[in-house]
UniProtKB/TrEMBL annotation:
Pfam families: Branch. GO terms for molecular function: glycosyltransferase activity. It is found in: Membrane. The keyword Transmembrane applies. This is Core-2/I-branching beta-1,6-N-acetylglucosaminyltransferase family protein. The keyword Transferase applies. Keywords: Glycoprotein, Glycosyltransferase, Membrane, Transferase, Transmembrane, Transmembrane helix. InterPro entries: BC10-like, Glyco_trans_14.
Length: 392
Protein backbone atom coordinates (compact mmCIF):
# COMPACT_ATOMS: atom_id res chain seq x y z
CA UNK A 1 0.00 0.00 0.00
CA UNK A 2 2.79 2.35 1.03
CA UNK A 3 4.68 1.59 -2.19
CA UNK A 4 1.75 2.61 -4.33
CA UNK A 5 1.36 5.86 -2.51
CA UNK A 6 5.08 6.67 -3.03
CA UNK A 7 4.78 5.82 -6.70
CA UNK A 8 1.85 8.17 -7.25
CA UNK A 9 3.54 10.99 -5.35
CA UNK A 10 6.70 10.73 -7.38
CA UNK A 11 5.02 10.04 -10.67
CA UNK A 12 5.18 13.74 -11.58
CA UNK A 13 9.04 13.73 -11.60
CA UNK A 14 11.22 12.91 -14.66
CA UNK A 15 10.56 9.79 -16.63
CA UNK A 16 13.93 8.01 -16.12
CA UNK A 17 13.78 8.30 -12.39
CA UNK A 18 10.22 7.25 -12.55
CA UNK A 19 11.02 4.08 -14.54
CA UNK A 20 13.82 3.12 -12.13
CA UNK A 21 11.58 3.78 -9.19
CA UNK A 22 8.77 1.74 -10.59
CA UNK A 23 11.14 -1.14 -11.42
CA UNK A 24 12.45 -1.04 -7.87
CA UNK A 25 8.90 -0.93 -6.60
CA UNK A 26 7.97 -3.88 -8.81
CA UNK A 27 10.92 -5.85 -7.47
CA UNK A 28 10.12 -5.17 -3.85
CA UNK A 29 6.47 -5.95 -4.55
CA UNK A 30 7.46 -9.33 -5.99
CA UNK A 31 9.72 -9.85 -2.98
CA UNK A 32 6.88 -9.09 -0.64
CA UNK A 33 4.56 -11.48 -2.47
CA UNK A 34 7.22 -14.17 -2.17
CA UNK A 35 7.51 -13.50 1.56
CA UNK A 36 3.77 -13.66 1.95
CA UNK A 37 3.65 -16.90 0.00
CA UNK A 38 6.47 -18.33 2.12
CA UNK A 39 4.68 -17.38 5.33
CA UNK A 40 1.45 -18.80 4.00
CA UNK A 41 3.15 -22.06 3.01
CA UNK A 42 4.86 -22.30 6.37
CA UNK A 43 1.53 -21.76 8.08
CA UNK A 44 -0.08 -24.43 5.91
CA UNK A 45 2.66 -26.95 6.64
CA UNK A 46 2.42 -26.16 10.33
CA UNK A 47 -1.37 -26.62 10.54
CA UNK A 48 -1.16 -29.81 8.51
CA UNK A 49 1.53 -31.11 10.81
CA UNK A 50 -0.44 -30.24 13.92
CA UNK A 51 -3.60 -31.88 12.66
CA UNK A 52 -1.71 -35.02 11.59
CA UNK A 53 -0.10 -35.32 15.00
CA UNK A 54 -3.52 -34.72 16.57
CA UNK A 55 -5.16 -37.51 14.61
CA UNK A 56 -2.38 -39.89 15.59
CA UNK A 57 -2.65 -38.86 19.21
CA UNK A 58 -6.39 -39.57 19.19
CA UNK A 59 -5.78 -43.00 17.72
CA UNK A 60 -2.92 -43.71 20.07
CA UNK A 61 -4.62 -42.51 23.22
CA UNK A 62 -7.97 -44.04 22.15
CA UNK A 63 -9.67 -40.70 22.69
CA UNK A 64 -13.01 -41.19 21.01
CA UNK A 65 -15.50 -38.56 19.97
CA UNK A 66 -18.66 -38.47 22.09
CA UNK A 67 -21.37 -40.93 21.01
CA UNK A 68 -24.41 -39.31 19.44
CA UNK A 69 -27.37 -39.10 21.83
CA UNK A 70 -30.18 -40.82 19.94
CA UNK A 71 -28.78 -44.27 19.07
CA UNK A 72 -27.48 -45.10 22.56
CA UNK A 73 -30.32 -47.58 23.07
CA UNK A 74 -29.19 -49.52 20.01
CA UNK A 75 -25.48 -49.28 20.57
CA UNK A 76 -24.19 -50.69 23.79
CA UNK A 77 -22.43 -48.38 26.22
CA UNK A 78 -19.33 -50.50 25.74
CA UNK A 79 -19.02 -49.33 22.15
CA UNK A 80 -17.70 -45.84 22.99
CA UNK A 81 -19.16 -44.71 19.70
CA UNK A 82 -17.53 -47.33 17.52
CA UNK A 83 -20.14 -49.66 16.10
CA UNK A 84 -19.04 -53.27 16.23
CA UNK A 85 -20.96 -56.49 15.78
CA UNK A 86 -19.28 -58.04 18.79
CA UNK A 87 -20.72 -55.56 21.27
CA UNK A 88 -24.14 -55.71 19.62
CA UNK A 89 -24.55 -59.48 19.84
CA UNK A 90 -22.82 -60.07 23.17
CA UNK A 91 -25.52 -60.64 25.81
CA UNK A 92 -25.14 -58.40 28.86
CA UNK A 93 -23.44 -60.21 31.74
CA UNK A 94 -25.89 -58.58 34.14
CA UNK A 95 -29.57 -58.61 33.16
CA UNK A 96 -30.27 -55.45 35.16
CA UNK A 97 -30.93 -52.36 33.02
CA UNK A 98 -32.41 -48.85 33.17
CA UNK A 99 -35.09 -49.15 30.49
CA UNK A 100 -38.77 -48.78 31.36
CA UNK A 101 -41.32 -51.13 29.74
CA UNK A 102 -41.98 -48.87 26.75
CA UNK A 103 -38.27 -48.65 25.97
CA UNK A 104 -37.62 -52.33 26.69
CA UNK A 105 -40.47 -53.59 24.49
CA UNK A 106 -39.42 -51.34 21.63
CA UNK A 107 -35.85 -52.50 21.78
CA UNK A 108 -36.81 -56.17 22.19
CA UNK A 109 -39.05 -56.03 19.12
CA UNK A 110 -36.04 -55.63 16.79
CA UNK A 111 -35.70 -58.57 14.48
CA UNK A 112 -32.93 -59.34 11.99
CA UNK A 113 -34.42 -59.86 8.57
CA UNK A 114 -31.43 -61.67 7.12
CA UNK A 115 -31.82 -65.29 8.10
CA UNK A 116 -28.13 -66.25 8.08
CA UNK A 117 -26.20 -65.14 11.16
CA UNK A 118 -22.72 -63.67 10.50
CA UNK A 119 -21.40 -65.38 13.67
CA UNK A 120 -21.55 -68.80 15.27
CA UNK A 121 -24.93 -68.90 16.96
CA UNK A 122 -25.68 -71.74 19.35
CA UNK A 123 -29.46 -71.61 19.95
CA UNK A 124 -30.28 -71.39 23.65
CA UNK A 125 -33.25 -72.26 25.82
CA UNK A 126 -34.32 -69.26 27.89
CA UNK A 127 -35.84 -70.26 31.24
CA UNK A 128 -38.07 -67.52 32.60
CA UNK A 129 -38.96 -67.87 36.27
CA UNK A 130 -42.04 -66.00 37.44
CA UNK A 131 -41.91 -65.85 41.24
CA UNK A 132 -42.79 -63.69 44.22
CA UNK A 133 -39.14 -63.84 45.23
CA UNK A 134 -37.47 -66.97 46.55
CA UNK A 135 -36.90 -70.06 44.44
CA UNK A 136 -37.44 -73.01 46.80
CA UNK A 137 -36.37 -75.52 44.13
CA UNK A 138 -33.19 -73.68 43.21
CA UNK A 139 -30.97 -76.61 44.33
CA UNK A 140 -32.87 -78.96 41.98
CA UNK A 141 -32.63 -76.50 39.10
CA UNK A 142 -28.93 -76.01 39.80
CA UNK A 143 -28.49 -79.75 39.29
CA UNK A 144 -30.62 -79.55 36.16
CA UNK A 145 -28.50 -76.83 34.53
CA UNK A 146 -25.09 -78.09 35.68
CA UNK A 147 -22.77 -78.92 32.81
CA UNK A 148 -24.93 -77.33 30.11
CA UNK A 149 -23.47 -73.83 30.14
CA UNK A 150 -23.89 -72.07 26.80
CA UNK A 151 -27.18 -73.83 26.01
CA UNK A 152 -29.45 -71.94 28.37
CA UNK A 153 -30.11 -68.52 29.87
CA UNK A 154 -32.06 -67.69 33.01
CA UNK A 155 -34.32 -64.72 33.80
CA UNK A 156 -36.18 -64.22 37.06
CA UNK A 157 -39.11 -61.86 37.63
CA UNK A 158 -39.73 -61.34 41.35
CA UNK A 159 -41.65 -58.71 43.30
CA UNK A 160 -39.90 -55.32 42.89
CA UNK A 161 -38.75 -55.03 46.52
CA UNK A 162 -37.42 -58.59 46.76
CA UNK A 163 -33.71 -58.83 47.53
CA UNK A 164 -32.12 -62.13 46.66
CA UNK A 165 -29.06 -63.22 48.62
CA UNK A 166 -27.75 -65.83 46.23
CA UNK A 167 -24.15 -66.88 46.21
CA UNK A 168 -22.01 -65.93 43.20
CA UNK A 169 -21.82 -69.56 42.10
CA UNK A 170 -25.60 -69.86 41.72
CA UNK A 171 -27.06 -70.00 38.20
CA UNK A 172 -29.66 -67.50 39.43
CA UNK A 173 -27.07 -64.98 40.65
CA UNK A 174 -27.72 -61.59 38.99
CA UNK A 175 -30.49 -63.02 36.82
CA UNK A 176 -33.29 -61.02 38.45
CA UNK A 177 -34.70 -58.55 35.91
CA UNK A 178 -36.18 -55.11 36.72
CA UNK A 179 -39.75 -55.97 37.73
CA UNK A 180 -43.11 -54.61 38.78
CA UNK A 181 -45.89 -55.76 41.10
CA UNK A 182 -47.98 -58.69 39.86
CA UNK A 183 -51.57 -59.40 40.84
CA UNK A 184 -52.92 -62.88 40.34
CA UNK A 185 -55.34 -63.20 37.41
CA UNK A 186 -54.82 -59.62 36.26
CA UNK A 187 -53.08 -58.00 33.29
CA UNK A 188 -50.01 -57.30 35.42
CA UNK A 189 -49.37 -61.08 35.20
CA UNK A 190 -49.21 -60.97 31.38
CA UNK A 191 -47.13 -57.81 31.59
CA UNK A 192 -44.60 -59.64 33.78
CA UNK A 193 -44.48 -62.53 31.31
CA UNK A 194 -44.05 -60.08 28.44
CA UNK A 195 -41.27 -58.35 30.42
CA UNK A 196 -39.51 -61.69 30.86
CA UNK A 197 -39.82 -62.39 27.13
CA UNK A 198 -38.53 -58.93 26.23
CA UNK A 199 -35.49 -59.28 28.48
CA UNK A 200 -34.75 -62.73 27.08
CA UNK A 201 -35.13 -61.48 23.50
CA UNK A 202 -32.22 -59.07 24.04
CA UNK A 203 -29.94 -62.10 23.78
CA UNK A 204 -29.91 -63.00 20.08
CA UNK A 205 -28.98 -66.59 20.88
CA UNK A 206 -32.15 -67.34 22.82
CA UNK A 207 -34.33 -69.38 20.48
CA UNK A 208 -36.90 -71.03 22.78
CA UNK A 209 -38.61 -69.43 25.77
CA UNK A 210 -39.95 -71.47 28.67
CA UNK A 211 -42.09 -69.92 31.39
CA UNK A 212 -41.93 -71.63 34.78
CA UNK A 213 -42.92 -70.66 38.31
CA UNK A 214 -41.22 -71.05 41.67
CA UNK A 215 -43.39 -74.11 42.34
CA UNK A 216 -42.36 -75.83 39.08
CA UNK A 217 -39.93 -78.73 38.93
CA UNK A 218 -38.31 -80.46 35.94
CA UNK A 219 -39.37 -84.04 35.15
CA UNK A 220 -36.47 -84.82 32.82
CA UNK A 221 -32.79 -83.89 32.51
CA UNK A 222 -31.58 -80.86 30.58
CA UNK A 223 -30.38 -82.75 27.50
CA UNK A 224 -33.75 -84.44 27.12
CA UNK A 225 -35.60 -81.13 27.51
CA UNK A 226 -33.30 -79.40 25.03
CA UNK A 227 -33.73 -81.99 22.30
CA UNK A 228 -37.48 -82.32 22.93
CA UNK A 229 -38.04 -78.58 22.57
CA UNK A 230 -35.53 -77.92 19.79
CA UNK A 231 -36.73 -80.92 17.81
CA UNK A 232 -40.38 -79.90 17.92
CA UNK A 233 -42.12 -78.44 14.91
CA UNK A 234 -44.55 -76.68 17.24
CA UNK A 235 -44.47 -74.34 20.21
CA UNK A 236 -46.03 -75.68 23.38
CA UNK A 237 -48.78 -73.19 23.97
CA UNK A 238 -52.19 -74.44 25.04
CA UNK A 239 -54.92 -73.06 22.82
CA UNK A 240 -58.43 -74.50 22.99
CA UNK A 241 -61.86 -73.29 22.00
CA UNK A 242 -63.64 -74.29 25.21
CA UNK A 243 -67.38 -74.21 25.75
CA UNK A 244 -68.91 -73.14 29.08
CA UNK A 245 -68.48 -70.33 31.60
CA UNK A 246 -64.71 -70.85 32.02
CA UNK A 247 -64.09 -70.83 28.25
CA UNK A 248 -66.27 -68.92 25.81
CA UNK A 249 -68.16 -67.54 28.83
CA UNK A 250 -65.22 -65.23 29.61
CA UNK A 251 -65.40 -63.51 26.24
CA UNK A 252 -66.78 -59.94 26.14
CA UNK A 253 -68.48 -58.35 23.11
CA UNK A 254 -66.46 -55.16 23.58
CA UNK A 255 -63.41 -56.96 22.20
CA UNK A 256 -64.87 -56.88 18.70
CA UNK A 257 -63.84 -56.32 15.98
CA UNK A 258 -60.21 -57.08 16.95
CA UNK A 259 -61.22 -60.34 18.66
CA UNK A 260 -64.37 -62.32 17.85
CA UNK A 261 -65.96 -65.11 19.91
CA UNK A 262 -64.82 -67.61 17.27
CA UNK A 263 -61.21 -66.54 17.79
CA UNK A 264 -61.37 -66.74 21.60
CA UNK A 265 -58.97 -69.36 23.03
CA UNK A 266 -57.96 -70.70 26.40
CA UNK A 267 -54.68 -72.30 27.45
CA UNK A 268 -52.38 -72.90 30.38
CA UNK A 269 -50.35 -69.92 31.53
CA UNK A 270 -47.17 -72.04 31.43
CA UNK A 271 -45.83 -72.11 27.91
CA UNK A 272 -42.82 -72.74 25.71
CA UNK A 273 -42.59 -70.69 22.52
CA UNK A 274 -40.04 -70.12 19.79
CA UNK A 275 -38.42 -66.78 19.06
CA UNK A 276 -40.76 -65.70 16.25
CA UNK A 277 -43.77 -66.02 18.56
CA UNK A 278 -42.01 -64.25 21.43
CA UNK A 279 -41.40 -61.33 19.04
CA UNK A 280 -45.07 -61.40 18.12
CA UNK A 281 -45.98 -60.97 21.79
CA UNK A 282 -43.62 -58.08 22.56
CA UNK A 283 -44.65 -56.14 19.45
CA UNK A 284 -48.42 -56.46 20.03
CA UNK A 285 -50.25 -53.17 20.45
CA UNK A 286 -53.52 -54.34 18.80
CA UNK A 287 -54.87 -56.99 21.18
CA UNK A 288 -53.18 -55.84 24.39
CA UNK A 289 -55.52 -52.85 25.03
CA UNK A 290 -58.58 -55.04 24.39
CA UNK A 291 -57.54 -57.69 26.90
CA UNK A 292 -56.51 -55.04 29.41
CA UNK A 293 -59.89 -53.33 29.22
CA UNK A 294 -62.26 -56.28 28.91
CA UNK A 295 -60.62 -59.37 30.39
CA UNK A 296 -60.78 -58.87 34.16
CA UNK A 297 -61.50 -61.52 36.85
CA UNK A 298 -63.34 -63.85 36.53
CA UNK A 299 -61.76 -63.60 33.09
CA UNK A 300 -58.21 -64.71 33.95
CA UNK A 301 -56.27 -62.91 31.28
CA UNK A 302 -53.12 -65.05 31.59
CA UNK A 303 -55.16 -68.01 30.29
CA UNK A 304 -56.46 -66.13 27.25
CA UNK A 305 -54.28 -63.30 25.97
CA UNK A 306 -51.35 -65.23 24.45
CA UNK A 307 -53.38 -68.33 23.41
CA UNK A 308 -55.96 -66.17 21.58
CA UNK A 309 -53.51 -63.72 20.06
CA UNK A 310 -51.09 -66.36 18.79
CA UNK A 311 -53.78 -68.66 17.41
CA UNK A 312 -55.05 -65.88 15.12
CA UNK A 313 -51.99 -65.54 12.91
CA UNK A 314 -49.78 -68.44 14.02
CA UNK A 315 -52.07 -71.38 14.76
CA UNK A 316 -50.07 -73.71 12.52
CA UNK A 317 -47.07 -73.26 14.85
CA UNK A 318 -48.95 -74.17 18.04
CA UNK A 319 -48.96 -77.64 19.60
CA UNK A 320 -52.13 -76.61 21.48
CA UNK A 321 -50.82 -78.18 24.66
CA UNK A 322 -48.54 -77.23 27.53
CA UNK A 323 -45.35 -78.97 28.70
CA UNK A 324 -46.21 -78.32 32.35
CA UNK A 325 -48.29 -80.88 34.18
CA UNK A 326 -50.81 -79.46 36.66
CA UNK A 327 -53.45 -81.28 38.71
CA UNK A 328 -56.80 -79.57 38.35
CA UNK A 329 -58.75 -82.67 39.37
CA UNK A 330 -59.63 -81.25 42.79
CA UNK A 331 -61.53 -78.33 41.18
CA UNK A 332 -61.50 -74.69 42.21
CA UNK A 333 -59.45 -71.74 41.00
CA UNK A 334 -56.10 -73.17 42.09
CA UNK A 335 -54.50 -76.51 41.22
CA UNK A 336 -53.39 -79.10 43.77
CA UNK A 337 -50.10 -78.59 45.62
CA UNK A 338 -47.82 -81.54 46.37
CA UNK A 339 -45.64 -81.77 49.44
CA UNK A 340 -43.08 -84.09 50.97
CA UNK A 341 -45.48 -86.99 51.57
CA UNK A 342 -46.63 -87.06 47.93
CA UNK A 343 -43.19 -87.44 46.37
CA UNK A 344 -42.57 -91.07 45.54
CA UNK A 345 -40.83 -92.79 42.66
CA UNK A 346 -44.15 -94.09 41.28
CA UNK A 347 -45.74 -90.65 41.41
CA UNK A 348 -42.89 -88.93 39.58
CA UNK A 349 -42.58 -91.67 36.96
CA UNK A 350 -46.17 -91.42 35.82
CA UNK A 351 -46.20 -87.61 35.36
CA UNK A 352 -44.50 -87.23 31.92
CA UNK A 353 -47.05 -89.53 30.32
CA UNK A 354 -50.01 -88.59 32.53
CA UNK A 355 -52.09 -87.73 29.47
CA UNK A 356 -51.94 -88.93 25.85
CA UNK A 357 -50.46 -86.46 23.38
CA UNK A 358 -48.84 -85.97 20.00
CA UNK A 359 -45.22 -84.93 19.44
CA UNK A 360 -44.50 -83.81 15.86
CA UNK A 361 -47.86 -85.37 14.90
CA UNK A 362 -46.89 -88.78 16.34
CA UNK A 363 -48.15 -90.40 19.53
CA UNK A 364 -45.64 -89.83 22.31
CA UNK A 365 -44.91 -91.37 25.73
CA UNK A 366 -43.57 -88.09 27.05
CA UNK A 367 -46.02 -85.20 27.09
CA UNK A 368 -44.87 -83.21 30.13
CA UNK A 369 -41.35 -82.03 30.90
CA UNK A 370 -42.22 -79.91 33.97
CA UNK A 371 -44.76 -80.17 36.78
CA UNK A 372 -46.40 -77.95 39.36
CA UNK A 373 -47.39 -77.11 42.03
CA UNK A 374 -44.93 -78.31 44.60
CA UNK A 375 -44.51 -77.08 48.17
CA UNK A 376 -40.98 -76.29 49.42
CA UNK A 377 -41.16 -79.43 51.59
CA UNK A 378 -40.99 -81.51 48.38
CA UNK A 379 -37.41 -80.42 47.75
CA UNK A 380 -35.73 -82.97 49.97
CA UNK A 381 -37.36 -86.12 48.49
CA UNK A 382 -37.01 -84.63 44.98
CA UNK A 383 -33.26 -84.19 45.45
CA UNK A 384 -33.02 -87.79 46.67
CA UNK A 385 -34.86 -89.09 43.62
CA UNK A 386 -33.29 -86.68 41.11
CA UNK A 387 -30.59 -89.07 39.99
CA UNK A 388 -32.98 -91.99 39.53
CA UNK A 389 -35.99 -90.28 37.98
CA UNK A 390 -34.74 -87.17 36.27
CA UNK A 391 -31.41 -88.59 35.20
CA UNK A 392 -29.76 -85.61 36.88
C1 LIG B 1 -40.72 -44.64 29.47
O1 LIG B 1 -39.95 -43.49 29.26
C2 LIG B 1 -40.32 -42.75 28.10
C3 LIG B 1 -39.32 -41.63 27.94
O2 LIG B 1 -39.16 -40.91 29.14
C4 LIG B 1 -41.75 -42.25 28.22
O3 LIG B 1 -42.13 -41.58 27.04
C5 LIG B 1 -42.66 -43.45 28.45
O4 LIG B 1 -44.00 -43.03 28.65
C6 LIG B 1 -42.19 -44.27 29.65
N1 LIG B 1 -43.00 -45.48 29.74
C7 LIG B 1 -43.48 -45.95 30.90
C8 LIG B 1 -44.28 -47.22 30.82
O5 LIG B 1 -43.28 -45.40 31.95
C1 LIG C 1 -30.37 -65.81 52.58
O1 LIG C 1 -31.06 -65.25 53.66
C2 LIG C 1 -31.84 -66.17 54.39
C3 LIG C 1 -32.57 -65.45 55.51
O2 LIG C 1 -32.67 -64.09 55.27
C4 LIG C 1 -30.96 -67.27 54.97
O3 LIG C 1 -31.75 -68.23 55.62
C5 LIG C 1 -30.18 -67.91 53.84
O4 LIG C 1 -29.27 -68.85 54.37
C6 LIG C 1 -29.42 -66.88 53.04
N1 LIG C 1 -28.80 -67.55 51.90
C7 LIG C 1 -27.56 -67.30 51.49
C8 LIG C 1 -27.09 -68.06 50.29
O5 LIG C 1 -26.82 -66.53 52.07
C1 LIG D 1 -53.75 -76.40 16.93
O1 LIG D 1 -55.03 -75.88 16.73
C2 LIG D 1 -55.20 -75.15 15.53
C3 LIG D 1 -56.63 -74.63 15.52
O2 LIG D 1 -56.78 -73.67 16.53
C4 LIG D 1 -54.90 -76.04 14.34
O3 LIG D 1 -54.99 -75.30 13.16
C5 LIG D 1 -53.49 -76.62 14.48
O4 LIG D 1 -53.23 -77.52 13.43
C6 LIG D 1 -53.37 -77.34 15.81
N1 LIG D 1 -51.99 -77.81 15.99
C7 LIG D 1 -51.65 -79.11 16.03
C8 LIG D 1 -50.19 -79.40 16.20
O5 LIG D 1 -52.45 -80.00 15.97
Amino acid sequence: MKMTVVEIEEGAKDNAASTLKSRLANQSRALLSMRLLQILLLFLVLTLGISLVGVHMIKFLKIQPLAPVAPTTLISALDHGTVSLESFIRPPSNVWHTMNDTELLWRASMEPRRKVYPFKRVPKLAFMFLTKGPLPFAPLWEMFFKGHEGLYSIYVHALPNYKSNLSRSSVFYRRYIPSQAVHWGEMSMCEAERRLLANALLDFSNEWFVLVSESCVPLRGFSFVYSYVSGSRYSFMGSADEEGPDGRGRYRDGMEPEITLGQWRKGSQWFEIKRALALEIVQDTTYYPKFKEFCKPPCYVDEHYFPTMLSMKHRIFLANRTLTWTDWSRGGAHPATFGKADITETFLKKLPGAKACLYNDQRSQVCYLFARKFAPSALEPLLELAHKILGL
